[in-house]
Amino acid sequence: MNKAFKALSDETRREILKLLSEKDMSAGEISDHFNMSKPSISKHLDILREAELVSSEKNGQYVIYSINTSVLQQILGGFLDFFNKNRKENNNEK
């Protein structure tokens, strides 16, 4: 889960996830939305893939990226558990 948090800490990677939440895209389609080099976008995609936040599938000469919602759900669930636990502990201290 640490890899996922590190991946989510970068604004560009969060923007990539927003794009992929709308539809699956190739690296070229993703890079069209940013003012940076294609190798830089590829590095961001590699980090997201290593964190299992996106998956990739070869389709002819293109690699198509898609968002992995199950990992995002696990992260969100972890956040909710953490905040609920802390809230209960704080209420018990009063």
In short:
The protein is 66% helix and 15% strand. By secondary structure, the chain is of the alpha+beta class. Strands 1-3-2 form a three-stranded antiparallel beta sheet.
The amount of helix comes to: 55-70%
Q: What is the CA–CA distance across the termini?
A: 32 Å
Low-confidence stretches: none
Number of helices: 5
Number of distinct beta strands: 3
Spatially, the strands of the biggest sheet line up as 1-3-2
Q: What gyration radius follows from the Cα positions, in whole Å?
A: 16 Å
Mean pLDDT: 87
Q: What proportion of the residues form beta strands (DSSP E)?
A: 5-15%
Task: Give a quick account of the main beta sheet: strands, pairing sense, barrel closure.
Answer: 3 strands, antiparallel
- Summarize the helix and strand pattern as letters: HHEHHEEH
Helix/sheet category? alpha+beta
Shape: elongated
Structure description:
The protein is of the alpha+beta class. Helix content is 66%, strand content 15%. A 3-stranded antiparallel beta sheet has the order 1-3-2. Helix 1 runs antiparallel to helix 4. The model has no long low-confidence stretch (mean pLDDT 87).
Question: Layout of helices and strands, plus pairs?
Answer:
Blueprint: H1 2-8, H2 11-22, E1 25-26, H3 27-31, H4 38-50, E2 54-59, E3 62-67, H5 69-93
Antiparallel strand pairs: 1-3, 2-3
Helix pairs in contact: 1-4
